[in-house]
């Protein structure tokens, strides 16, 4: 929308000058041109003189820079949908999109110069282009400087790395003491070994109560592809008898790449605690913010059950003791410790096209099945790439799935309980 508005503005602005102002000026009579003597002098400029002037050159250069950024931002180039031969393949992908958008620095400089050389205006305070640019430039520069210092403030240490089917990289890192966040929020991640300038946002998949931070990153572009390749080189091959995943941790012989983080940043999902009933719907890797919410709900459920058991044990002990003072004192303390959970039900719907995707969050789903005795969390997983409804093969898979779950309590498709 913003890019389209800029295109419309450029067409109207440039078209007005090229099709109206320039022809009117070069075709003006001597009497009419006398009003422009203080701008152009005694010699009337030609059309090319106006185009080759500071205003024309800066305007053309701005259009070229914005056109480059606009083209490389389209989905065909940004998502590598267009396969170009080497070395032109480097002008596609997210990196090309990211770096081309920094041409705005040149555009802003040219815009200030373009605004200084105004026709028919020589009063300095009317040349106010720099005033309109000062505020957004200061805000942008302040944000970049703040991120630079915050990334150095939050030092993290990689604890575990795993590469799952579907090109998903899981990074588990230490949580800085000052890093406080809510489930549903996201943070920016930078890997200097991949690019010292690029920051990419990822939803936090760990819960606030966990003693670590985790993110799940799916390979979708050139930056994530290079990040996955970098960690694949330091991961150890699968061990016999364990899952066939590439893994690495602090005991790995090869040193793990350095990571910088910035955040957390707010997102709509972070206000889930305000509601009694939650409906969480995720598609593929888009389920990551809801995984953090499920973990947080589960942690609160476990804490409440532990507090209830503690209160029950304390009450039983008090009943066996002699004296009314001893029996009533613990009951006055336990309500203060009791932590209530507003959410009564949470429904999680996850739709994915690949069976291997269920490995991404299998541990969380199994924990919910084991620890959520009250049935607060209800999970529904859908695999859309099996067969269409009504197909004989789909019916057979459904039947085997039901039999295996009834016998062993494990779903054969997702591998979860």
Describe this structure in words.
The protein is an alpha+beta fold. The protein folds into three domains: 126 residues; 114 residues, Elongation Factor Tu (Ef-tu), domain 3, CATH 2.40.30.10; 113 residues, Nucleotide-binding domain of ferredoxin-NADP reductase (FNR) module (Rossmann fold, 3-Layer(aba) Sandwich). It is built from 14 helices and ten strands. Strands 5-2-1-6 form a four-stranded antiparallel beta sheet, with helices on one face. The longest helix is centred in the C-terminal third of the chain and has 33 residues. The radius of gyration is 31 Å and the shape is elongated. About 3% of the residues have low confidence. One of its GO terms (cellular component) is plasma membrane. This is FAD-binding FR-type domain-containing protein. GO terms for molecular function: metal ion binding; NAD(P)H oxidase H2O2-forming activity; peroxidase activity.
